[in-house]
């Protein structure tokens, strides 16, 4: 059985190379990663076992431009000022590919909202990956400034989820 962190690392490596397909078989478990415009992961244990299938966009896609490229592309002063303001904010990023949930169930209130104060141990969301619910903590003490993804949205490894103004 492949571990989640091993699969994430393999996805990252495939996305950073010109390899379009990778198949690995180990002790009756087969892992296939294909990259025809999107990364596809298929993990099969045996003929009788269920199949886990996750589809996601390549992790190599950059979500946020760097400060240098944003400044070079901007024609006015608004973009550099916005970039400067965001430079002081902490980004809480997704540690894995999965589905983003703001609360533990549809009936419950979200863990955090814009304007909420958080500590480094405050749970801010859940990332569901391979039917496992993974609670994500804030990592810093501060105030939630912006929530960058929608409830139920598929998120990538390293994708920014929240912006926090550190204290």
Q: What is the count of distinct domains?
A: 2
Average pLDDT works out at: 75
Q: Which CATH architecture of the largest domain?
A: Beta Barrel
The CATH homologous superfamily of the largest domain corresponds to RNA polymerase II/Efflux pump adaptor protein, barrel-sandwich hybrid domain
**Envelope shape:** elongated
What is the CATH topology descriptor of the largest domain?
Answer: OB fold (Dihydrolipoamide Acetyltransferase, E2P)
* CATH class bucket of the largest domain: Mainly Beta
Topology:
Blueprint: H1 4-15, E1 21-26, E2 29-34, E3 39-44, E4 51-56, H2 67-73, H3 78-87, E5 90-93, E6 98-101, E7 117-118, E8 123-129, E9 132-137, E10 142-147, E11 154-155, E12 160-166
Antiparallel strand pairs: 1-2, 2-3, 3-4, 5-12, 6-8, 6-11, 7-10, 8-9, 10-12
Descriptive notes:
This protein is an alpha+beta fold. It folds into two domains: 4-56, no CATH class; 88-166, RNA polymerase II/Efflux pump adaptor protein, barrel-sandwich hybrid domain (OB fold (Dihydrolipoamide Acetyltransferase, E2P)). 17% of the residues lie in helices and 37% in strands. The protein is built from three helices and twelve strands; from the N terminus they run H-E-E-E-E-H-H-E-E-E-E-E-E-E-E. It has helices at 4-15, 67-73, 78-87, and strands at residues 21-26, 29-34, 39-44, 51-56, 90-93, 98-101, 117-118, 123-129, 132-137, 142-147, 154-155, 160-166. The strands form three sheets. Strands 1-2-3-4 form a four-stranded antiparallel beta sheet, with helices on one face. A hairpin with a 2-residue loop joins strand 1 and strand 2 (29-34). Mean pLDDT is 75; it is low at 45-78.
């Amino acid at each position: 059985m492949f571990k989640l962190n091993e699969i994430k690392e393999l996805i990252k490596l495939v996305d950073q190379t010109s390899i379009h397909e990778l198949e690995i078989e180990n002790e009756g478990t087969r892992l296939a990663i294909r990259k025809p415009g999107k990364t596809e992961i298929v993990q099969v244990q045996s003929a009788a076992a269920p199949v886990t299938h996750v589809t996601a966009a390549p992790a190599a896609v950059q979500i946020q431009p760097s400060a240098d490229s944003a400044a070079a592309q901007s024609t006015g002063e608004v973009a550099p000022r916005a970039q400067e303001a965001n430079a002081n904010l902490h980004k809480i990023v997704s540690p894995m590919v999965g589905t983003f949930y703001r609360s533990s169930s549809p009936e419950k209130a979200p863990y955090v909202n814009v304007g909420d104060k958080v500590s480094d141990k405050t749970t801010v969301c859940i990332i569901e990956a391979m039917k496992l619910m993974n609670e994500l903590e804030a990592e810093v003490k501060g105030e939630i400034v912006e929530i960058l993804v929608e409830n139920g949205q598929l998120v990538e490894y390293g994708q920014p989820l929240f912006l926090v103004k550190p204290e």
